[in-house]
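Design job #97: recover the sequence.
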């Protein structure tokens, strides 16, 4: 369980790095006339992602979930792939990437990198990680709860992003 705790903590550190990038990118977007949408759902998103990390450790430890090698190593690979996809999204969007929905007017929609394949690839990474990280150490309840709650939250989030994009002057893009 020590190595699993280290993995979950590494994901937590990665999330903190994302927040640092998002804060820098928020300043960039607002300085260029960006406007934020969806402030109401943002605290729920932060709480859900924090609960995912806590739930992984709590369920694996308190429920004494076993490490099943085939499932554990397979889902650990999915966690790594999800991180790679997330950082590919961040790198592709550059200063436009954010954890918030901020649309900068007059910027074209990004269609490079993973965005040439999917409209919202970052959310694929989030969903994959939310299922895989708990299952690395058998925390299936956490995986199931996160998946259901994340699906509901993503329905709100994607609608918010699409509405913000539609309202942006000259094809703005979420920052």
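Job complete. Output follows.
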């Amino acid at each position: 369980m020590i190595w699993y705790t280290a993995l979950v903590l590494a994901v937590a550190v990665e999330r903190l790095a994302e927040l640092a990038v998002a804060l820098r990118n928020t300043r960039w977007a607002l300085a260029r006339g960006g406007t934020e949408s969806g402030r109401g759902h943002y605290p729920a998103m932060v709480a859900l992602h924090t609960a995912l990390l806590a739930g992984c450790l709590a369920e694996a430890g308190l429920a004494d979930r076993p490490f099943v090698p085939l499932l554990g190593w397979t889902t650990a690979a999915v966690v790594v792939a999800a991180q790679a996809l997330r950082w590919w999204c961040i790198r592709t969007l550059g200063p436009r990437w954010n954890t918030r929905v901020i649309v900068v007017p007059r910027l074209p929609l990004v269609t490079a990198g993973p965005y040439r394949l999917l409209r919202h690839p970052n959310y694929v990474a989030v969903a994959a990680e939310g299922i895989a990280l708990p299952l690395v150490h058998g925390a299936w309840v956490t995986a199931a709860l996160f998946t259901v709650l994340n699906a509901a939250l993503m329905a709100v989030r994607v609608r918010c992003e699409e509405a913000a994009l539609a309202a942006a002057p000259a094809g703005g893009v979420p920052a």
